[in-house]
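Hi there. Long-time user, first ticket. I'm pasting a complex I've been working with (about 383 residues overall). I'd like to know whether the download I got is complete or cut off, because the file seemed smaller than I expected. Thanks.
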Amino acid sequence: MRSLVLCVLVISLGAGGPARADSSTTTRHLLAGVQAFQNGAYEEALVELRVVARAADAPADLAFYLGPTLYKLGRYREALAVFLGSSAAPDELTTLYVGETYYQLGLYRKARVVFAGLHARGLGPVIDEAAVRYVAAIDLAYREPPTAQAIDAYIAQARDAARDLAVSAEILEEARAVEALATARHRHDEIAIALATTWNAIGRAKDTIGMLGAKAALPVEGTWQLARAYRATGDDAHARPLLQKLVTGGGERARDAAALLAPPSP
Amino acid sequence: MLSLVISVLIAMRGLALADDPHAAMRAAMLAQIDAHPTPATLPTGKVVPTSRFTGVPGTTPNGAKGNGNGNGNGNGNGNGNANGLAKQAAAAAAGAAGQSQSQAAKTRTKNHPHPTH
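Hi, the file is complete. Here it is re-exported in full:
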């Protein structure tokens, strides 16, 4: 029996080995940050995680630690920026915190998509029940169609967040989704053009094409942003006629369009 | 004897978890989910700029002052506002690009304080 106990101990030690982190400075700060988070000391956790973020060997999934910490501190825009900026694929728990961050920012259409997706995946009672509650709370708020004032408020929020274009784009997407639920059109083109401008600025030209590409008629600024998006994706066949139209029209973007049409100087 | 083995295994698992930041964070995140949302209310008021100190964006709760500003900007200015918002987005984009260029220049200067031509 004693040999059996020894055997089990050796096996369990071996199994625990690979999961253990090394004892580098970065890992120590990461562990300290996690421990602070566990204890509800979020400010302290943030200090530790900021140290980790500055390290050359910071983990690729730092957003997994930093995002929820910022969320717990009520720094929702920063949390969203961290989640959006992460290149690591989020797991279901991180996704839940992304949904909660959207919710706290009042981006309910975005939050609803996240929570409905989590519910559809059936991820166990804790996550699933929370997701169902959030969806219900959002649907309750949307019993009546959204007002023009709500759309205005989202546009104002997007302006306020213009320093962080990725976050601003999320808010404009929310404004667009909310406007789509309204009984009458309200600042429809304005939202689409601002969103296209922001998407183009953050390298999401394909989204601009997806939104504006199918539209039959666009205002000058919309045509310009669509042409820029086509050009950015290397689709000159679509970009060129739009740019020529802008030049011929002689409007506000004629000079910019002509510059984009001109061959690059050697 | 069996209980001793189980106790040792549990203790070992606990130790491994304490040293595995990802597993420990997962456990903490799961335990601290805000499972009961506060009621959702659509914004109707003026947005207060994000606090530099707390980082918390504020929205006045259906405030009269906020409503006034929202409507003033929103209604009856189709093209003017469209251009305005798009221009602001473009300006912000240009600002962000300028900032990164400036940062890059700073880095270059730091790395090569005396450029050789």
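A couple of notes from our side: The mean pLDDT of chain A is 91. The two ends of chain A are 83 Å apart (CA to CA).
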